[in-house]
Write a structure and sequence with these properties.
Its EC number is 1.16.3.1. The protein has 155 residues and is an all-alpha fold. 79% of the residues lie in helices and 0% in strands. The chain contains five helices and no strands. Helix 1 packs antiparallel against helix 2 and helix 2 packs antiparallel against helix 4.
Length: 155
């Protein structure tokens, strides 16, 4: 099937976001593992795997539409040197992803490509869940204080 070039470009833009997120989350996961925060490691690692699945869906859709997936583009990766900075950097990334997916969903609807729109909506739902998880971590840090929060992330 021959897809709309603008939509294929948009999907490649989203793919770059996902590939960037994979890298950012996995580095944060490994840093937390190194610091002994295995629960945070697991949380970040799971989010990275979710982003890999998103990238896989986008690559599949780009190929279906007759496009070429561009996997060599990454956006700036923002690595935090401490847990609160990591979580904030991840929050900012998710805000951008949610906005980009909403825009892409609107474009797919305008182009009457409802199958692509449905795929993007599924991914957006995951991104919304990621945002909820990140905000939950930030709330816990605020309510418990950082030292107490970090003690809950060990083991």
């Amino acid at each position: 099937m021959k897809g709309n070039p603008k939509l294929i470009d948009t999907l490649n833009f989203l793919l770059a976001d996902e590939l960037t997120a994979i890298n950012q989350y996995i580095v944060h996961a490994e840093m937390c593992e190194d610091w002994g925060y295995s629960k945070l490691h697991h949380s970040f690692e799971k989010r990275s795997i979710d982003e890999m699945k998103h990238a896989e869906k986008l690559i599949g859709r780009i190929l279906f539409l007759g496009g070429t997936p561009i996997v060599s583009n990454l956006n700036n990766i923002h690595i935090g040197d401490e847990v609160p900075k990591q979580i904030e950097n991840d929050r900012v990334a998710e805000v951008g992803a949610i906005e980009a997916y909403n825009n892409a969903i609107a474009l797919a609807g305008e182009l009457r490509d409802y199958a692509t729109r449905d795929i993007l909506i599924q991914i957006l739902n995951d991104e919304d869940r990621h945002m909820d998880e990140i905000e939950e971590l930030q709330d816990q840090i605020e309510q418990m204080t950082l030292p107490i929060f970090l003690t809950t992330q060990v083991g």
